[in-house]
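Hey, can you fold this one?
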Amino acid sequence: MFKLLATMILGRWNSLSIESQKLVQSYVEKCLFCEQKKMTGIHLYQSLICTDCEHEMLNTKTNDIKYKFYVQKLKNAHYAQQRRQA
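Sure. Predicted structure:
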């Protein structure tokens, strides 16, 4: 339901008022992996992992080259969180 609403809102972006655009922007974040702006997913520390990347990550085998990419991005998110807490 929320995904459908988000698609409808983003599809009519130019017709939204400035206040509505600001409200929508507050829910749009850049995905840790694909770096696209998304509204849905999970949060790890202060980073968003979009639903598509979450699904792809969970279905990646450990011998796949993408596995190393995901591990490195997750480490970077962890180190960034540690720096914020210091």
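The two ends are 39 Å apart (CA to CA). Let me know if you want another pass with a different chain boundary.
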